[in-house]
Specification:
With 385 residues, this protein is of the alpha+beta class. The protein contains 13 helices and twelve strands.
C-alpha cells in the first residue's frame, strides 16, 4: 500500500526551504517559501522560483504538474525503471503516483542538497558501497534486471544508486579518503569496453582545457567519476541541470547551445565560465558526442552563488536523434564552423578566441581519438566545387 502524501517539506540540509502541496482544484503542485528561508536563504531556481513571498503554481502542461527544480531530484531512465519494478511488487506503479509521492521516494537520498519529508516508508533508503569487490556482482544484477530474462535484485541496485540519472546502471561509492564517486556499469546494449571508452573521452576533455572531476577505472572496466555535489567535508551542494533551470524536458531535445551560453552568463556573471561552456560545446561537436542533452550540463549553487559544474557524460555517441546533436547551434543539429563561431561572438567571446578554442580542441581530439569531426576541414570541403 502506497502512503497518501498531501504535503511535503523541502529541506536544504536541516533548514526548511518551503512547503510543496497539490492544489485540489487544478491538480498542480503549489510551492511556498518558508518565512525563515525568505529572510536568510536564496532562490533555489532563479527563473522558476525567485526568492519572494506568495504561492507559486506549477505549469500543468510540464513535468506532470510539478516544478522543474523538484523534478530534477528524481532519477531518470535506469533509476525510474528500478523504482517502477519495486512498486509493482507493492501492487502499484510510477504512473499511479502523484509528484509528491515520487519525491517522497527520493527522500534524503537524492543527488544535490535538496531533500523531501516525509519519506516513503519501505522504499526510501540508501546504502553506500564501500567495497569495489562487489562491483562485478552488482553489474551482473543490473544486466539481469535490464534484460528482464532473469530475476535480479532491483531493490539492492536502487539503494546503491543514490537516485543518479542517466540510462546506464550506476552505483555510488565511498572511498577510504572519504570522497564519493559514481561508478557506471554497462547496459545490455553497451560494449564491454564502454568504461575504458568514457575514460578516454573524459581524459581528452581535460587535455582540451575542460574542467572535469577526478576520474578513474575500477577493476579495469568500470568508469568512475567523483561526485561534485558533495564537498570533501561531506557537505551536500545544491545542483540543478540546465534542463531544470530552463524548465526544459531533456527528452524533447529542444535545447540550443545559445541558450546554454546565455544561461551561464546570467547565472555566473563570469566571462571565463561562459568561455568554458563554449569549450564544452566545441568538444561535443568535434568528439561526436551527440548525446549532449540538457541534463548533461549542471550548475552548482553554493550559499546563493552560482557556478558552472564540472563536465560529465562526454563520450562517443554518433547516433543522436536522426543523426543530429541533442543540443543544436542556432537550431542546426549538425552545425558548421560558421555557426559555432557565431555562437561565441554573439555572447561576446572574441572571434580570435573562438577560433583558438576550436583549433585546440580539434588538435587534441585528433591526437587522442579515432573518430573526429574537424569543423575546419568540413567547412573547407563544403566550399570546394
Amino acid at each position: 500500500m502506497i502512503t497518501d502524501i498531501r504535503k511535503i517539506s523541502v529541506l536544504y540540509h536541516a533548514d526548511v526551504v518551503g512547503t510543496l502541496q497539490i492544489d485540489p482544484s487544478s491538480g498542480v503542485c503549489v510551492f511556498e517559501y518558508d518565512k525563515s528561508w525568505l529572510a536568510n536563504g536564496f532562490s533555489i531556481s532563479p527563473l522558476e522560483l525567485p526568492l519572494q513571498s506568495g504561492l507559486f503554481y506549477a505549469d500543468k502542461n510540464l513535468f506532470g504538474g510539478n516544478f522543474a527544480a523538484f523534478e530534477n531530484s528524481l532519477p531518470d531512465g535506469y533509476g525510474l525503471y528500478l523504482i517502477d519494478r519495486m512498486l509493482k511488487k507493492k501492487n502499484s506503479s510510477l504512473k499511479e503516483l502523484t509528484p509528491l509521492q515520487r519525491l517522497s521516494i527520493v527522500g534524503t537520498a537524492g543527488m544535490g542538497a535538496l531533500s523531501y519529508v516525509p519519506m516513503m516508508p519501505g522504499i526510501s533508503a540508501q546504502k553506500e558501497l564501500n567495497d569495489s569487490e562487489r562491483l562485478d556482482y552488482l553489474q551482473d544484477e543490473a544486466l539481469k534486471v535490464l534484460s528482464e530474462k532473469e530475476i535480479g535484485d532491483e531493490t539492492l541496485l536502487y539503494y546503491n544508486s543514490a537516485n543518479s540519472g542517466g540510462t546506464r546502471p550506476k552505483v555510488t561509492m565511498k572511498t577510504q579518503d572519504g570522497s564519493r564517486w559514481i561508478v557506471k556499469f554497462r547496459h545490455v546494449y553497451d560494449s564491454p569496453e564502454i568504461g575504458r571508452e568514457e575514460l578516454l573521452y573524459m581524459t581528452t576533455a581535460r587535455k582540451c582545457g575542460i574542467d572535469i572531476p577526478r576520474i578513474g577505472l575500477l577493476r579495469d572496466r568500470y568508469f568512475a567519476i567523483e561526485r561534485f555535489d558533495i564537498t570533501k567535508t561531506g557537505e551536500r551542494l545544491h545542483v540543478l541541470t540546465a534542463a531544470a533551470l530552463l524548465k526544459k524536458d531533456f527528452r524533447r531535445q529542444d535545447m540550443d547551445y545559445t541558450n546554454l551560453l546565455a544561461l551561464t552568463g546570467y547565472l555566473t556573471q563570469d566571462p571565463a565560465q561562459v568561455e568554458e561552456m563554449y569549450r564544452r560545446m566545441v568538444m561535443n561537436i568535434v568528439a561526436i558526442n551527440k548525446d549532449d542533452h540538457a541534463n548533461n550540463f549542471s550548475f552548482i549553487c553554493n550559499k546563493g552563488k552560482w557556478s558552472l559544474a564540472p563536465a560529465y557524460d562526454i563520450t562517443y555517441s554518433p547516433q543522436g536523434t536522426h543523426g543530429e546533436h541533442a543540443t543544436s547551434v542556432f537550431y542546426d543539429g549538425n552545425p558548421n564552423l560558421s555557426l559555432v563561431v557565431r555562437a561565441g561572438t554573439e555572447i561576446h567571446i572574441p572571434k580570435e578566441s573562438c577560433i583558438k578554442i576550436i583549433e585546440k580542441v580539434e588538435s587534441v581530439c585528433a591526437e587522442n581519438l579515432k573518430k573526429v569531426n574537424k569543423l575546419t576541414e568540413t567547412t573547407k570541403k563544403r566550399r570546394e566545387p
